[in-house]
Amino acid sequence: MEIQEQVNRFRDTMQALRQQIGRVIVGHEEVVENTLLCIFAGGHALLEGVPGLGKTLLVRTLGQVLSLRFSRIQFTPDLMPADITGTNLLAEDESGRRRFQFQPGPVFANIVLADEINRATPKTQSAMLEAMQEHAVTVAGVRYELPEPFFVLATQNPIEMEGTYPLPEAQLDRFMFKLLVHSPSVEQLNAIVDRTTGAEIPQAETVADGETVLWMQHLARQVPLAEPVRDFASQLVHFTHPDVDGAPDTVKRYVRFGSSPRGAQALVQTAKVRALSSGRYNVAIEDIEAVAYPALRHRILLNFEAEAQGITAEQIIDAVLEHVRQRSEVRLPLVSEQATGQAI
Fold first, then answer.
1. CA distance 56 to 155
2. What is the CATH classification number for the domain harbouring 63?
3. At what angle are helices 313-327 and 227-238 packed, to 10 degrees?
4. Cα-based angle 146, 147, 151 (whole degrees, multiple of 5)
5. Is 115 helix (H, G, I), strand (E, B) or coil?
6. Is the pLDDT of residue 293 over 90?
7. Is the same domain home to 146 and 11?
8. What is the pLDDT of residues 30-77, one digit of tens each?
9. Is the entire prediction scored with pTM above 0.70?
């Protein structure tokens, strides 16, 4: 298949996914878009929002449109690692002999919803995050591979903190994106009521399967990255650290720790997917800027002064973006000005 045909197929599939998800999910276009970017970049996403905003429905709908196995894990303080990964059970065969047989847990799915992940103990959270990192679990010394593609969408409530175990920065870093789910507008509420209280409830149709997802992930990794774009992404991460020379004053004053190298990886991987979904097979500066907030907001640790003054991670990212723009001696043309004749 020619490169342009592959790019067109990628773009058309993304558009069909948006349309089918939009039949069920009202609003949340940015959350839906960034969730799709995570899936095809091979990462995981953390959704933060109050209950009842459709996070679970979004994950179920993704399972439908992608024809993937969906699993939901409700995290509670008494949840044990074996409740996630699975355990060995004593089974008896036809001859009457007894032996241990592995019973897979709910993590053995393509799309896993880790609902209220911060309600589980750190021991249970670490078991989940090991599965996210390794795409495998180890039970009684035996390693079991998870099905591919494998994607985790975790949720946490930003308001109710009683009986929770907040994710430390090292665990948050395992998530490619942190997405903020906001309350719907009046018009969106009206649409939700109309869709969910009538005689017929809209359903999404299947657009792609697991093989298509893996093909799209593979194609995204082949998208070329020009050196100025790569440098732009690296500088964004570099200047989130307050102890580096030339960091913005805002960063030096309000940031305790900056982003890890995973932040740069997340910027580049999701920017490649965004370029393909727009019908391009080259990454532009605009693609990096578009994914900067969800890729970096959970990787920047603010200090006490920032919290006291109400400074947010988004404001820090604003300052870093402006700082890097001014430092860039050579800037690539905008998307509208770029040629599209480069080959992968």
1. 9
2. 3.40.50.300
3. 140
4. 85
5. strand
6. yes
7. yes
8. 888 999 999 999 899 998 877 777 777 888 888 888 888 888 888 888
9. yes
